[in-house]
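Researcher: We're teaching a course module on how sequence relates to structure. For the next exercise, students receive a sequence and then see the predicted structure as C-alpha cells, so they can try to spot secondary structure elements on their own. Here is the exercise chain.
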Amino acid sequence: MAEICFTKQAQSELDAIVEYYERVGATDFAEVFEEKVIEKIRPLEQFPRVGRMVPEIEDEAIREVIYRNYRIVYIVDRDDEEVEVLTIFHSSQQFGPLDSGGE
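Model: And here is the predicted structure for the students to work with:
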C-alpha cells in the first residue's frame, strides 16, 4: 500500500484554493473542497498508477487525477510505495513548474 504525501507547493496550492472559495463567498464549497480532494486521491494508496500520465510531461511516474476542474498531479516512486502530490491547479491555468521536495 502506497503512502500519500504532499509537497509544500501542493499543500500551499490546496490552502490557497480553499481560501479563494471562502473569499468569494462559496463557503460551503470551501468547507468540503479539501475533503473531496483527499477522497479523490485516497484510491492511489491501493492503485498508485490509476491516474493518467500528464500529457505535458512524458514520464510514466508523473500522473494526474481530476477533481471537478482541478488537476491533481503526483509522482509515484519506482516501487509504488509512495505517492507524492506535486501540484493542484485549475485546468484553465497553464501547467507550471513542479516541486518534488519530499515534503
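Model: If you want an answer key for the exercise: The beta strands are 3-6, 52-53, 62-67, 70-76, 82-90. The chain has a mean pLDDT of 92.
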